[in-house]
Amino acid sequence: MPELTYMLFLGCLIPYRAQGYEVSSRKVLDRLGVNLVEMPEFNCCGFPLDPISHEMMLTLAARDLCLAEKQGLDIVTLCNGCFGTLKKANTMLSEDRELLNKINGYLGEVGLEYKGTSNVKHLIQVLIDDVGLEKIKQNIQRQFDGLKVAEHYGCHVLRPEKIVNFEDPEDPKALRELIEITGAEWVDYVDKLECCGQPMIGVDDKIPLQLSRDKLKHIKDTGAQAMVTICPACHMMYDLYQSKIEGDFNESFGIPVFHYPQLLGLAMGLDPDELGLGENRVKASGILNFKKGS
């Protein structure tokens, strides 16, 4: 096996609502020599149940972690919510012996035992910490010189800091570095670390649409020509709902929203169809022709 091998945890949302994120991540990681092992019979990470039952959330997350432990592999996730939940389960079960015994009691009924031997990493953590910027740079074939790109981290990949233990939640650098390695210009803007509002969309869409509208407006004010996300739920708010936001607020944005590996894949010379760009709602024809062939 290649030196870098992870068990891929897709979660619930990506296979049904963000196929472009999965396809582009697989293509980019393969090009960078990262081997992905499929997780058999995985279940929901438990994130939606956390406010209702910590024990149920922990049992679901621990079962997924057990599947990786059986293979002796760390997990890579593409979803911020899955990342934060699996990290939270690892932390809570490692710090509370009584809780660990209770959860293992539930897992024992299906022949599993959580041991805490598998780490959980987000895609951008693998790119920054394990693959490394130098190797990524060696694979860049097309520089997006002059293209202005805004970032959106989302919440759970940065907070709570004690659990995710990845970057400074008030001043993260990884996504900026990953944008700039494509030759694009990273742009700063007001409220870039704020929530997109997606968790509320099924209850009352007014607040999340307002939050996303404010962010799109601030991004447009910078002159940015594109936006990148690293979370499928956040991507839905800015890409899928962008036309509704424009209609509701009588504004026009037209900001293409890339899953980060789509932007990176283009810079690596991969074809747009290989990266699932046809799944994106806000078309990016101007970006695809930007400095074409350079």
Describe the structure.
With 294 residues, this protein is α/β, with parallel strands linked by helices. The protein has two domains: 4-123, Glutathione S-transferase Yfyf (Class Pi), Chain A, domain 2 (Up-down Bundle), CATH 1.20.1050; 140-288, Rossmann fold (3-Layer(aba) Sandwich), CATH 3.40.50. 46% of the residues lie in helices and 11% in strands. It is built from 14 helices and eight strands. It has helices spanning 13-17, 19-31, 54-71, 80-95, 97-108, 123-131, 133-138, 161-164, 174-180, 206-221, 232-240, 242-249, 260-267, 285-288; strands spanning 4-9, 34-38, 75-77, 120-122, 148-152, 185-187, 226-229, 257-259. Strands 2-1-3-4 form a four-stranded parallel β-sheet, with helices on both faces. Helix 4 packs across helix 5 and helix 10 packs across helix 12 (242-249). The longest helix is centred in the N-terminal third of the chain and has 18 residues, at 54-71. The protein is globular and about 55 Å long. 45% of the residues are buried.
